[in-house]
Every structure is written in C-alpha cells, then in structure tokens.
Amino acid sequence: MRKPTFEQALEQILKEDRRYHEHAYEFLREGLDFTMKALAKPAEGEARHVSGQELLQGLRRFALQEFGPMAKTVLHRWGITRCEDFGEIVFNLVDKGVLGKNERDSRQDFTGGYDFEEAFRKPFHPARKTERKSITSHKTTE
After folding, report:
1. What one-character-per-residue DSSP string does 66-120 give?
2. Which of 13, 61, 67, 141 is least surrounded by CB atoms within 10 angstroms?
C-alpha cells in the first residue's frame, strides 16, 4: 500500500475529525520542519527523531516568529488552545501514515508542555515599572 500524500491524509482526517482547521495541520508540518532544522543533525543517516517536548518548543518558537503577538489568537482560531491539541494533530497524522513515531512516543508527550498565555502573550507584555527601574538603575551603575 502506498503512503498517502499530506494532502490526501489531511482530506481524510478533516472528514473524520473537525476539531482543528486545516491550517493547523499545515502549521504543524511547517513547524516540524522548522524544529528539525534547528536541532543538531546526526553526522550520517536519517534525520534525528524529534520528541514531543522538542516539537512543542519548536512550534512555540515558530508561532512567535510567524505570528508575533497574534500567535495565540491565530492558534486558537484553528482550534489549538493547549499543548495537548498539538499532540492530537500529530497523532492524527501518525494514524494516517504521514508522520512516523517510535515505540516511546505517545499523546502524553504533549501533556502540560506550557501555558499558552505565558508562551504566546507574555513575550509581548511591556516591562513592569519595577523591571524597568532595575534595568535603568543597572545601566546607570555600569
């Protein structure tokens, strides 16, 4: 049996599971590529396996790079409101043969990764007055 293309698998997934927008799957695929490029490659052979926690961190960085302060809003619009949603998307793609997994991989790898408010909003909050004072006083004492 031939491995389905990403588009074929996505079409089938969306017929069976409407929790996530098709853009969520495309984002995950691009975020996985982004993550793999950021991780050290082995000297030879196949690309190294990406763990669930590594993927979560890569997806966070990718979302911030792509969407900036709108990252949480965009992901939420696509049905992604917590790290576990990324795991569901990954395993939908695994079940259709688009992504591979090893015997240690599970949906639980995506449980409790990070809080979306902290991960996607906090980097854009202005510094508090006390933080600004300590930064300013540190600069003047140098």
Report:
1. HHGGGHHHHHHHTT--SHHHHHHHHHHHHHTTSS---TT--GGGGTT---HHHHH
2. 141
Close Cβ partners of 54 (under 8 Å, ≥ 6 residues apart): 35, 39
Residue 75: its pLDDT value, please? 98
Number of domains present in the structure of the chain: 1
Residue whose C-alpha is closest to residue 26's, from 39, 41, 13, 37 = 13
Does 11 map to a domain?
yes
pLDDT in tens, 80-133: 999 999 999 999 999 999 999 999 999 999 998 999 999 999 999 887 765 555
Residue 101 lies in a domain: yes
Mean pLDDT over 49-53 rounds to 92
Q: What's the Cα-to-Cα distance from 93 to each of 35, 53, 90, rounded to whole Å?
A: 17, 17, 5
Note whether residue 21 is domain-resident. Answer: yes
Matching residue, tokens 């031939």: 2
Percent of the chain's residues with pLDDT above 90 = 74
137: tokens are 């006083």
Helix (H, G, I), strand (E, B) or coil at 48: coil
- The pTM of this model reads 0.84
